[in-house]
Amino acid sequence: MIERRFERKVSAAAVVVIAATYGYFLIFAEFSFLELLRMSVGGDGLRPAMGALCAGGIVGSVVAAWRFRLEMYARSLQLGAVACAVAAGLACVQASAWTAVAIGLSLGWLTVTLTSGLRAVLGVERLGLVVGLGTGLAYALCNLPVVFHATPRIQAGIAIALMVLAVVAAVALGKGTAECSEAPDFKARPATCWVVIFMALVWMDSAAFYIIQHTPALLAETWSETTSLWINATIHLAVAVVAGRLIDRGWLGRIAIGAWVGLAVACGLLTASMQAFAGAEILYTAGVSLYSVALVYYPARSGRPWLATAVFAVAGWIGSALGIGMAQDLNAVPVWFVVAAGVVVIGLLIVRQHGRHGLRQPLLVLALLGVLGSREVRADEEAQLIARGREVFIGEGCIHCHSQFVRPGTVDVTRWGPEKPLVEMITGAPPLPGNRRQGPDLAQVGNRRSPEWNRLHLMTPREVSPGSRMPSYAHLFREGDGRGDALVAYLASLGAETLERRSAQVQAWKPATDVVINEAKGAGLFARLCANCHGDEGRGDGVLTARLSMHPPDWSLGAWRRVDATDEAASVARIIKFGLPGSPMAGHEYLRDEEVVSLARHVRSLQRGAKAP
């Protein structure tokens, strides 16, 4: 009886430490720290800091394996947890590349130390269940609406609290018997296969996650609604626990295949359309939970610190960096890559059992797929479509009404985006400064309008922009005529290189504080500019709603979708002024501050009215 109670105590402590460790990674290192970085160093400094985080994680993983001693297991866990907490505190004071290094070092140490000793203190009979429960709780916690919607600093505080829990729980993990598994799955060849399998899965997930996080419309559909977050939390926990139980029964390989299937379907639908992905959100969530449990279980089952280092340094840190980099460069998860990842996962699961000679075929297929679907091939196809769109832009006479030159030091910079060197414009073939500006400048329209909005506007300009003088170009979108798609692709390409600068510019904007609010004018502006999509009373039932991939919110339900509750007035005004890039919600950059504030007051009155009894 006493021994059984002790086992339960140790298992519970292990669940707490696992949940705290991965909760810290999910809500802080992968989420709120990036927001703190963005506020501190801006968009241009984000990539170097992310590189520093990755480098720190790799070094921390290596040092943890080198210094691992089972007799010091509890103290090593506590050291890592304290270091993580201190790093999170420093990030709240000043987020920088140096704090990124500190977070990476401490988290790398903690993850490798944790998994290296779990086998010794828990045994292997229920290891999968413990790992599944801890991992599932971490994901569930981070998807709780009160946690997910908290400010970055509050989320950092939650991460610090998790590390305090880990310090306390680690006391119960101080005793264990050193034992490394001699199972075939942990020898050199199978271990290499598993590391590559995990890297492929992490790569897919990181790319998809980055795209969702940086596409407002997708983010709103997946993680902004309270109901969606509760569903995600429930799925994460349930799937993780089931995965842990199945892994204890020898299903590790099938779990990896299941994870790839879920991620593959989700990534394929993510590339297809926002509406399609919304239906695959459950598969994405389940796939993430499946591979996450396997990722922790495999090195933990081995009891080998250096294998844990290989898994987390190569698959975790490097795989994540590669996925984010691919998403930043392509803004998509290419089909060829999803197929290649499937070849890796399924092929290497076969190879690990059939010898080194079987390794050649999957790797050869992977290499061929990489060559055939390389970035250069994809970029060439996109470049041809964009070049054709530029020709359509010129041929249809768009240059007579639209400029492509943001004049430095003028209101242009606020309205249309950061200025660019004049040489970039005059070296075009031909240059497209525009003849006479009748409509908005288009030098960076890809930052301000989604392809979906541009398509609708080109086809029915006065329905989308009441009062517009632009003629309809619906004839470009007739069946078999690719000119419309080419023109939309060209417009989407304009300003891609200044996206981060524009985002920082938008976040820094606030309306003047001395403007006079005219509620009647705000109501009139809403009726003229907003009602076609949002409806007369903000119920999301405007005449254009059925044609949008993402329907406007119904404010009668009383909940905002993308408004910062800590500064509601400024947040609503900012969305009205600049829109939500990547979504059908376009900005009204030409409105004066008093018009923006008056319109924002009317919008807030509609939403507040929904809350009234």
Automatic annotation (TrEMBL):
Superkingdom as given in the UniProt entry: Bacteria
InterPro entries associated with the record: Cyt_c-like_dom (IPR009056), Cyt_c-like_dom_sf (IPR036909), Cyt_c_oxidase_monohaem-su/FixO (IPR003468)
Transmembrane spans: 12-34, 46-66, 73-91, 97-115, 127-148, 154-173, 193-212, 227-248, 255-276, 282-300, 307-327, 333-351
Keyword Transmembrane (UniProt): yes
GO molecular function, one term: electron transfer activity
Chain ranges of the Cytochrome c domain: 384-495, 517-607
Pfam families: Cytochrome_CBB3, FixO
Record's keyword annotation contains Iron: yes
Keywords associated with the record: Heme, Iron, Membrane, Metal-binding, Transmembrane, Transmembrane helix
Protein name listed in UniProt: C-type cytochrome
